Fold these 2 entries.
Entry 1:
Amino acid sequence: MKTIVSFVLAVSIFLCTAHATVDDALSFALQAAQPYVKEGFTVREDYWGGDLPVKQPKAIVQQLFKGNEYWFWMGTDVASAKISVHVYDAEGHLAEAEYWRNKPHMAAVRVVPKVSGSYYLIVEIEKSPLERTHWSLAYGFR
Amino acid sequence: MVCAAFLGPVCFAQGEPPRSIDVGSLPATVVDEVVVPVPTEVFGVLDKLGSPNWHDVLRPVKTENLGKRPQVALLLGVTIAEGFIAVEAQEAEEVKKIGRQVLTLSKAIGVQKSVISRTSSIIEAADKKDWQTIRLELDGASKDVKQAMIELEDAQLAQLVSLGGWLRGTEALTQVVGKNYNKDGAELLHQPAILEYFQRKLDTLNPRLKENTLVKKIARRLPELHTLIEPAGGVSPQKVEKIHSITAELVKAISSQD
């Protein structure tokens, strides 16, 4: 019985820790968003997140609308990690207006879509001391 | 070039991102989840293109004689989308009614605890005519009920909330564009990723949900909608009308008694 309780406790602690780190990554993404909220961007409550090994990018397909301007903010809980997010249109052409990735914990990209449709967001952990690094991606529009 | 093995020509570690990638060879690690746009993302563009009469689009939502759980989940999505329309119309009283209806519907599927504070904020913000706060709280309410459903191991039901909201939002969009057709407005209907996502989700529903009459009815019409929205760069007035007719029929079915 004692073993089972210890196991359940260990699993719970592991799950809580894993969850907390994605939450931490999100909090950095939202921190990156703050200055843009003041510029009139509405930040969505939904977000993406998970963990990734170094140099193994992940693709996210997202609908964007011509007439809006978007910022995507990526965050990680690992201060020394280097992360990036870039956006491509349905034909695979780089579609971003600007990006930055020179701040600890954060990277961001701005898109002003030329057409409405599907876009590919490519997120990557470029450098990290960890085998897998938690990340989160939020977005806003105006 | 270690990353080339995972993402074809995509490799950012060298510095600047490549000017183009081969989208046909994206890795298996494509995130399955699509964030379904909130109606405001579309309505905001319509506002920039002209001055739609949102009062004409706004419709009272009924919550009497609620049906089975899938219908309630779909209706919850429709109601939240109606909230966004009420905000566009700046109808504070309607927003308050919708806030209360969101709570009633959430209660019917056992997730009311997750939205009590959101609905209170919606009602308070409606009193102050604080439209931006209402938009944020409606988005938050949608996320919170879906999260509560996932925690209750009812993630598939959560997809129906998104689907109901998308159907009502698209019905509203086609009503506005149909009334005063313009190419830029019609282009907002080009949403292949969303349609593919919903089709994928309905295909993988558990048999109990899949056999629900309403869900079956919606699943039958989605491929048709997909064909209509497919051409990039514009959707013809005839197609806008057809999309409106399909989405209006489905929203009516969601809002009707079993």
Entry 2:
Amino acid sequence: MSLLEVQQVSKAFGGIQALTSCSLSVEKGSITGLIGPNGSGKTTLFNVITGYDSVDAGDIRLGGNDITRAKPDRVFSMGIGRTFQLTRVFQRLTVLENMHVALPRKVRGLLLHWGSPHEQTRALELLDFVGLTKLKDQPAGTLSYGQKKLLEFAIILVAEPKLILLDEPAGGVNPTMINELGSRIRALNEKGITFLVVEHNMEFVMGLCKTVNVLHRGTTIASGSPDEVRLNPAVLDAYLGA
Amino acid sequence: MKRVKILVLLALLLIAIVFPVLISPTTAVNDMAVYTMIYAMGVTGWNIFSGYTGYISIGHAVYFGIGAYTMALTCQAWNVPGGYLPFLLLPLAGLVACAFAVPLGFLALRVRRYAFSVTTIALMFIFQLLGYNLRGITNGSLGLYLPQPSWSSGVYDLPFYYVGLALLLLAIGVSWRVRHSKYGLGLLAIRDDEDRAFGLGVKTAAYKLSAYVISAFFVGMTGALFVYFLGTIFPQFVFDPIVDVNLTTMAFLGGLGTISGPILGALIVTPLQQWLLLQFGGSSLNLILFGSFLLVILLLLPQGIVPSVQERWASWRAHRLELARVKSLNGTKNQPALVEKREGR
């Protein structure tokens, strides 16, 4: 059964057609890859899924529910978390405060002190999971690039999403850290979290994903196992031809 | 550490309470103290929105003026005599300011950051024009008079001072509660990255608007108390860009987005302004001196006093700890080598 279903989605910015009748499905419990040359529309696809951009045409469904026109806050509360290509953490909040921003809030508890014991334990557990416990009281702006990536990842996890979209998680991260990241993703996947990963590092994608989708000029041109995709002539053409 | 903090705060409160009775030498100083309290309350309220969200409003004089006119007009309409009674109208003035802040905030907050700041300036001038031209309500540039209390001159300032202090404490309480709540964490997240906060489930539009309305409540009461103390009200003195300059200056000087910063700013800016006015007001030299003071502050403490001091304190402590660590390392094995090296130099 597919958890995320993108059907015939189109999106134009002025005269530029970023997505043209693009379709994609992500199986529940999978780690699905999304690759494509620069400018092929990967980030735009992430933006329309998470509500940051509106679609011109098409449908997006999460577990059967229509989320085509949902705003970012609703998409998040329905269980899709995402990271950004250029990491976005709250620079002047501490690492721990960053974690608490993503925790669900009810109107009734809004004026209560943030960080109930239960939430605090959860946040600290996750910081431990990504290895940032020591830095919990530092402003997030003082973290290194790789640490910010890990923090952004942990922030998403705190809300227990069903599906996580990762936009170039390995970009600019050193090789050891990339392996670390891969094992973290696998561990979470075993616990039932589904992943959709955009990545330029082919080795990383091919090692991690069972299914890979290839985007070219705003539309999916291939989908299948890493080996199938690698040998697909259309894919070779997209990367080497144009 | 926490106990020390509480003791210091209690001591400050005690000083604030006895100041006009025991410490202040003249009525001029007491006048200054009243204005300081009034502004400290206003800027603390302003900071709940602009400080926490980073949306700098340069148009809160709108609410200052609306609060002020609410005070003047209700006193007139209901024949409220001078004395303690008008103080009871302060919350009403705040609430009327809130009622205006809902639609105005909704409009102004449709744009981001700098565009928002510019919009708020425009709103301020629109209300100034309305103040001049709605003569049926405001009496235009002729102004209105407020009822005058019949207190003797020696103790005249005291009720204003203590009401101002009480409202300041209320504003601090609200600011503190917000700062440490989930709601406040959302506001601070908006300051750092609004779109990201939205994508993490923070309902940004509702957060910004509610904070804007809360701040209008306090600035509205500030305006009302201000004109009651002054005794008269004219459009150009309440829908006044100087009000906005004062609020922003105090907040930036003390430390935008901190709880104590804006209060410290008010404690410095208001007396300084009043003193300069008394000394050099005749030649307008006061404005030049005040401007130079601001430039010096910008040059030396661009982040504001409280954050700069906090930062220096933190780095001094970190340096000390590191020094101690290095020393203990050297103590075990490296010390002779280090000494030699130094002598070699």
